[in-house]
Amino acid sequence: MIKAIMSEISLPTLGSLPSRLTRLYAGLALYGVGIGLQIESHLGGSPWDVFHQGLSIHMGLSIGTWIILVGALVMLLWIPLRQKPGIGTVSNVVLLGVFADAVMWLAPTPDPLAARWAYLLLGVVATGAATGLYIGAGLGPGPRDGLMTGLNRLGLSIRTARTIIEVTVLAIGWLLGGTVGIGTVVFALAIGPLTQFFMPRMRPKG
Fold first, then answer.
1. Is the pTM of this model over 0.85?
2. Angle between helical axes of 182-202 and 47-59 (0-180°, round to 10)
């Protein structure tokens, strides 16, 4: 999916390097907001965040720290897949967990169910918008997306690679105690259409 989206972005439309860096870091910050709000909703996270949450429950350290550590470990899998990281890849590994932890600290779980649903929906929309910003910067895929496209280069379709990866991390995260729920379903159904909606709107004009 990421490769298909990137193929539609021609280099002249990406904008200047300062503009691309602004979109990259704004996208990472907004992605952290999305992760933090969805986790704090306690209605179910994305597959990777269920995995990160499960690791945090069983092995200590914050969820954001596990986002960073897992991202770094996933990058090691790029070596046999001959994937090349960009500044966006490294920035994703270093900063995404920091932003997510900051949001979870600043916005603890509310009691009313309506407020938790608001967290969930705002988190999913923020993630979709962040994906549009981040991918549109064209400065390298995130480590998890790079794993998917690397498997695609070995012959797996993007759909198959993504399904295998996300089902695997979701199952492990659930077994470790991560929260799987309606939010997980909402994320799975909404993230594709939201990304498609935001991608053209996050590109620089002209």
1. yes
2. 130
What is the rounded CA–CA span in Å between residue 174 and residue 204? 39
**3-to-6, 79, 141, 146 alpha-carbon distances in Å:** 5, 19, 9, 9
Query: Could you give the CA distance from residue 193 to residue 88 in angstroms, rounded to a whole number?
Result: 23
pLDDT 10s digits, 62-105: 999 999 999 999 999 888 888 888 999 999 999 999 999 999 99
195/41 Cα distance (integer angstroms) = 21
Residues in contact with 126: Cβ distance below 8 Å, sequence separation at least 6, in sequence order: 30, 31, 33, 34, 37
- Which amino acid, residue 103? V
Q: In the structure encoding, which two tokens stand for residue 89, read together?
A: 């890849």
Cα–Cα distance, 206 to 204 (Å, whole number):
7
**For residues 50 and 177, what is the distance between their CA atoms, to the nearest angstrom?**
8
Q: 16: Cβ–Cβ under 8 A, 6 or more apart, which residues?
A: none
DSSP state of 176: T
Sign of CA dihedral 96, 113, 198, 19: negative
Band of the pLDDT at 13, cuts 50, 70, 90? low
